[in-house]
Amino acid sequence: MQLFSTEEQAEIANAIARAEKQTSGEIVVVVASASSRYDAIALMWAALLALTVPLPLIWLSQWPVEHIYLAQLAVFACGVLLAQWERLRLALVPKAVQRARAHDKAVEQFLVQNLHTTRGRTGILIYVSFAERFAEVIADDGIYKKIPQQTWLEVVDTLTHHLGRGARTEGFIAAVERCGQILAEHFPPGRTDKNELPNHLILLDARSIA
Prior knowledge:
This protein is an alpha/beta fold and 210 residues long. Helices cover 55% and strands 11% of the residues.
């Protein structure tokens, strides 16, 4: 499934370019269909389900041990197959684990996209992971010294409000524009500013995520 059309990606890229003209800061937007595949958790649930099979069969049936073992293997195999259904797999993962994985992925992307290498340490990452319904804004040290975390939480609220009503592109554009306005107040553009990082929307496919 394509998260954004070519036209939507271009609209967001143009919004980033416009916002960065107001400031010496850098804004990067990363969107993931999911922050993790959660394969290990799915396998854990399949194994736990299989482990519950022998005890009732031993107590309530006269099955030979070979048949009980085969039943246990069959239950495990069915559990693994069912876990391939993404919606079910996500339902098996506690919300706290999902948020932790998504946050870790956001921090990883902050480093992968080289936001920590900008001059003045004025890089901002807007990260959204759709499967976990997670959004976060991460700013570098130079920004945190001047702008409180609450400001970025308000940007996230604006973004998630739009996402909640299905206005994805408008939400990202609104978030980018607000980040540009905030940065412009504290980090105005300089004479020698250059665009250090790409402006295009960065999309992560869940199939390439461990």
